[in-house]
Amino acid sequence: MTTESVLLANRAASAPGPDTPPAIRVEDLYKSFRIPTQRVDSLKERAVHPFASRDHRELHALRGISFEIRRGEFFGIVGRNGSGKSTLLKLLASIYRADAGSIQIAGRLAPFIELGVGFNHELTARENVVLNGVMMGLTPKEMRNRLDKVIDFAELREFADLKLKNYSSGMLVRLAFAVMMEADADVLLIDEVLAVGDASFQQKCADAFHQMKTEGKTIILVTHEMGSVESYCHRAMLISDGEIKYIGAPAEAGRQYLKLNFAGNSDAPVSTEEPEPEEPEEVEEDVDPGEGARLVSCRVINAGGEGTPTVEMGEPIRIETEIELLRDAPGLHCGLVLGNADDVSMFELSVPVQSTDGYDIKGNKVIVTATVQNPLAPGRHFIHCGLQSPFGISVYVPKAATFVVFGTHPSTGIIAPQSEFDVRIPGEEE
Amino acid sequence: MAARAEIPLQQVNGPSALGGGPRRFFDLLWLMSVTEFKRVYFGTVLGYLWSLIRPLLLFGVLLFVFTKVFRVGSEKVEHYAVMLLLGIVLFTFFQEATTNAVTSVVAQEGVVRKTQFPRLVIPLSTVLTAMMNLSLNLIVVLAFVFAFGVDPTWTWLLFPLALVALLTFTAAVGMALSVLYVRFRDVAIIWAVVAQVLLYLTPILYPINAFEEENQTYEHLLMCNPLSVIFTQIRIWILHEADAPSVLHAAGGWAGLIPATVIFFGVIAFGAWIFKREAPRVAEAL
At what angle do helices B22-43 and B121-147 cross, to 10 degrees? Predict the structure, then answer.
């Protein structure tokens, strides 16, 4: 069994089945914001421009979202900035009011949209812990009983009576996180607060999350980090433009999220419509080397033959190059060099430009499609394109195309070869 | 786990003035007020003394000005000093509570935007904090009352009634101002002026019967201010002077009390209504 499948088995074992009663049911949730083009902040402005305030844009943050989260589920919500996920979170947390639709929650929900909200820096840690606990819905008495546990979890015993204004930022975050852990809500709403504190505290938080998960708490995690979605969540939901794009397996949600992320990134790709090839460095004989052939376009395509700015990690890279031949070009080769963002050449492909029957091309336009195994690590890559023939053609277009390799697991290094592991304990063979 | 499965789904209606149940509301209100009180009075060197020195200093200056420099009818009151001190302490409460309430919701922006928080707790806690100050100050006032030779009577027991009226009025004004300030930042400046004007339009520095017989209209007009009614009644109950005019007399009959009553309940209704209306949207407007 591979390590990954062990993890998957674990996740499957603790995931609540479909017959588990729901902890949260959201039906047809709508929310839009009115953004005034000119904000009227004073009575005088309102009096002087009585109609100015009517001028506003409608921003549809959520357009009819429905989903259910089962009891005991660790549920991830992912989405790009501005996708509406924060709005959804604030609606669930009763910070905003929905325009339409309904939210039903079983039990008490404690939101953690930002750590340490409501801390009063003039008060001691003890007083703040009680105040914060009450904000989360406990009684002052209950919170006082838990005070020691909180202080111990935050590892702040010596500083418990110190005013918060004298705390370091790390100490504050630890205290806030500790309060959250002891809040004992039925549903926890957590917005990207995992990456706090030093390494040992982070481990403690990770342990605490796993514990809450095994205790069967319902947890909603909103994050950009696909790693934590995959390692904690039972299910995940991808939101884009106020709509649910995907809901289901965390790995798939993560993959689609990354795809979405780079697909929308239209400003980055280098123009493939290079009008003129670069000036060749050497002029051979009396023939202008650039004259014989011209690179019309070079792009990365998907399996369906459409241009794409992204390739998933491990999936083959398909490169389509269109060349215009201005004269007969026997022995013409199209060279494609793949380089990464640091200008390191990863590998080179040399494709002979030949017709299927083996004769050299005599026509006007040729389309060369290359399909390459993809050993590249996630990141931006460039394709430098060259055309060369023994009879004087030499064209080189650096960065003729660009694409992003994406994957759910960040990878150190410049390549990420596919691998399989076999973990055995010697002596336990059957 | 089995016990948790019993919890039924409940409709969530978004933020509101009272959201989260009455127990949590009062827990939070109490904790917020106490911590704020502690912050102000244990954070400074002289602590509580400050909240006493301010009205006392004002009292000393005004007492000198209005008994030695101008005569504004102070001779018409048997215990002008006591009336003045009591008036100043009570008005200081009103002014402090409302002025702090104006910016309270905006100042608690983080709490409003990032947590589930009953909105009403915020302005009310500033009123409650001011109330704590007032309670301490009233003890000092009591010492002065005795020092100036006012004898206790049974009508002192009615004083809390007037206090409740003042407290309700203050809370309503504070509620309205705190949410209006979220929308219109001018409210802070306007209110500073209005509060100053109110100080002079309430019989605090002068008794309500300070006017000559032919100028009774002024007296009636002043009684349109609900604060005037409350302060005049307090004077009657505490000082129990033989010749002090009753509220009814000062207002010129029952009809004269109608404007003050309408304003009083109107302000309370407006405060509750505007707060209830704006509370769900405060987080978005901030």
Answer: 60
- Angle at A387 (CA atoms; ends A385, A388), nearest 5 degrees: 140
Question: Chain A residue closest to B19 (CA)?
Answer: A94
Q: Which residues of A touch B115 (CB under 8 A)?
A: 93, 95, 111, 113, 117-118, 135-136
The residue in chain B having the minimum alpha-carbon distance to the alpha carbon of residue A121 is: B39
Residue B6 lies in a domain: no
At residue A2, the pLDDT reads 41
Collect all residues of chain A within an 8 Å Cβ-Cβ radius of residue B24.
134, 137
N-terminal to C-terminal alpha carbon distance within chain A: 15
| Interatomic CA distance for residues A223 and A220, integer angstroms | 10
Which residues of chain A have a CB within 8 Å of the CB of B111?
A: 117-118, 135
Task: For residue A128, give the chain B residue with the closest CA.
Answer: B35
Rounded average pLDDT over A175-186: 80
- Kindly report the backbone phi and psi dihedral angles of residue A29, in degrees, each rounded to the nearest multiple of 5, phi listed first: -85, 125
Q: Does B4 touch chain A (CB under 8 A)?
A: yes
**Closest Cα in chain A to B35:** A123
How big is the CA angle at B196 (ends A50 and B226), to the nearest 5 degrees?
Answer: 90
Instruction: Please answer yes or no on whether B15 and A42 come within 8 Å at the CB atom.
Output: no
In a domain, B216, yes or no: yes
First and final CA of chain B: distance in angstroms?
40
Instruction: Give contacts of A96 with chain B, Cβ < 8 Å.
Output: 14-15, 280, 283-284
Closest residue, chain B, to A217 (C-alpha): B1
**Higher model confidence: residue A42 or residue A128?**
A128
Q: Give pLDDT tens digits for A339-385.
A: 887 778 888 888 777 665 555 566 677 888 888 888 888 888 888 88
B110 inside 8 A of chain A by CB: yes
Judge whether A247 is closer than 8 Å to chain B, CB to CB: no
**Among residues A94, A145, A140, A116, which one has the least CA distance to residue B33?**
A140
pLDDT in tens, A57-82: 778 888 888 888 888 888 888 888 77
Q: What angle do CA B126, B90, B171 make, to 5 degrees?
A: 35
Domains, chain A, in order of start with CATH, read: 293-406 (2.70.50.60)
For residue A25, the chain B residues in CB contact (below 8 A) are 9
Q: Judge whether B7 lies within some domain.
A: no
Q: How many domains does chain B have?
A: 1
Residue B71 at interface with chain A, using a CB cutoff of 8 Å: no
Contacts of A265 (CB under 8 A, 6+ apart): A309, A404
Which B-chain residues 155-194 have CB contacts (< 8 A) with chain A? 183-186, 190
A-B contacts at Cβ under 8 angstroms = 116
**What pLDDT is stored for residue A6 in this prediction?**
41
Report pTM: 0.70
Question: Is residue B115 assigned to a domain?
Answer: yes
Cα–Cα nearest to A340, from A284, A416, A281, A283: A416
Which residue in A351, A355, A389 sits closest to A370, CA to CA? A351
Residue A94 at interface with chain B, using a CB cutoff of 8 Å: yes
Q: What pLDDT shows up at residue A358? A: 54
Q: Which domain holds residue B262?
A: 20-279
A369-to-A299, A307, A327, A374, B199 alpha-carbon distances in Å: 10, 12, 21, 15, 86
- Concatenate the DSSP letters of all residues of B158-178 into one string: GHHHHHHHHHHHHHHHHHHHH
Q: Please report residues of A whose CB lies closer than 8 A to that of B190.
A: 43
Q: How far apart are CA B272 and CA B279, in angstroms?
A: 10
